[in-house]
Amino acid sequence: MHAEHQDIGVSQVAAAIAEPARTKILCSLMDGHARTSTELAAVAEVSASTASAHLSKLKDLALVRLHVQGRHRYYSLADQRVAQALEALMVIGQNAAPSFKPHTPDRLQFARTCYDHMAGTLAVLLHDRLLAAGWLVATDEQAYRLSDSGAALFEGLGIEVQDLSTLRRKFACPCLDWSMRRPHLGGSLGAALLQTALKRKWVTQDLDSRALALTALGRREIGVRFGVELPLDAKSKRSQPAAAPTGNMHI
């Protein structure tokens, strides 16, 4: 009987996500920001009343959470598990195609948020470097730990590693990147790294999307601290004058 109830629950959630407007709503919330039903209606390209009906359905299934502040009502993803499920579905959806061709806009593919951590080319390169340098060590297929040198690296950035390990969530884990089909760093450590990158102005976040832009300072600091050689992101390519030398690029 319990298994039957689980099957029903899975089918209800799958049906809710499968509706195109609700998919757009959920994906737009993957940057970790809360939005109003009016904003989400514009994202989903539906009327305000239709958006409200969709949000009610998503809330009933614990896919989104409602936040009430005075007269204002905001919606966010219920938790990180919803974001991870959406990322996994994006990968599966691309697997269903005859051949894989990423259709992610360049500015999103290079760097973006995945709920509360970093995704895209930049995040995958950082993830791979952390493993290759021995700072990050796989304990199983779904979990990482920091080596002593890795802990020193993150603590040098002002990240309290011990505090992160006490949180009620995974400390560090691979999160499959749907645009790269390779993992980036998730968990509380991944979230802390993104917040550090934002605080130190290594990356800046778009106000109206999940895109992250790498700054000149970020390119230099990430290169020095992590030993990662970074390609130009899409925004850099667009803003770089044709005759300007590489060292003077505008990011």
From TrEMBL:
Q: Which Pfam families match?
A: HTH_5
Database matches in Gene3D superfamilies: Winged helix-like DNA-binding domain superfamily/Winged helix DNA-binding domain
The HTH arsR-type domain sits at: 2-97
Entry-linked PROSITE patterns: HTH_ARSR_2
Report which superkingdom the organism of origin falls in: Bacteria
- List the protein's name: ArsR family transcriptional regulator
User: What is the native source organism of this protein?
Assistant: Pseudomonas serboccidentalis
